[in-house]
Amino acid sequence: MRTFFYAIKPIIYFSVKFIIFMNMKKFIPTTEQLEKILKMYNEDLIGSHSIAKEIGVSKPTILRILKENNVKMGSPGRRFIGGREVAMKKYESKPEVKKRKREYHKKWYSENKEKWNEYIKEYREKNADKIRKTKRDYERNRKATDPLYKLISNFRTAIYQVLKESNVDKNEHYFDILPYSQEELIQHLENQFTDDLTWDNYGEWHIDHIKPLALAKTEEELYTLNHYTNLQPLWAEDNLKKGDSIHYKQCTDYCN
Hints:
Blueprint: H1 2-23, H2 31-42, H3 48-55, H4 59-68, H5 83-92, H6 95-111, H7 113-126, H8 128-145, H9 147-163, H10 172-176, H11 182-190, E1 205-209, H12 219-225, E2 231-235, H13 236-242
Antiparallel strand pairs: 1-2
């Protein structure tokens, strides 16, 4: 008798499981749940496994719902609509992800500043020609499509050439539209020279726009930011660190 019981025990077990399965209520999503499932799969590119965990049902249930709603089912990894590359772009475009990455990079840089600077220096030395070509191509394309950027670049060139005492005549028309002369510009800069700053070591120091030209949105604003009261001599290293930030040390009326 006991032997017979053990023989039929597996049959009883699976029969009970089958009856329970057959009598289980089929999961029917609400309208809100259905919209969420379809959006997660079609727009957010989230896989069926992750959707199932979010909704609180099994993966086969999600696959059934997608099939019933005529959703195009693809191979694992969603390769047919872009796959991981597309999914990662959507993920990294989220504000919270961008913020987290900024904080991570800021922390990493503060802990590895010397290592990073050494890497950049070495990279620039090894790829000098490539960097110059990339910069030339960028400048040419940007000037061809952005008139204001072209004007900014021409102003920079004009000021640089005047201070180098070459091509002065070529750039006179830029000073014709500014409310000061070339001589006033040179005098203004000389008034700010320290013992170490001279025209002989120009190149080791730069002409810095206290309020950066990047702030200009119109030609009128560009002329204002190119007024000599918005210019100061600044050591090259300090100028590169400053970037497009604002330094009010010497900025007067034209910076307001």
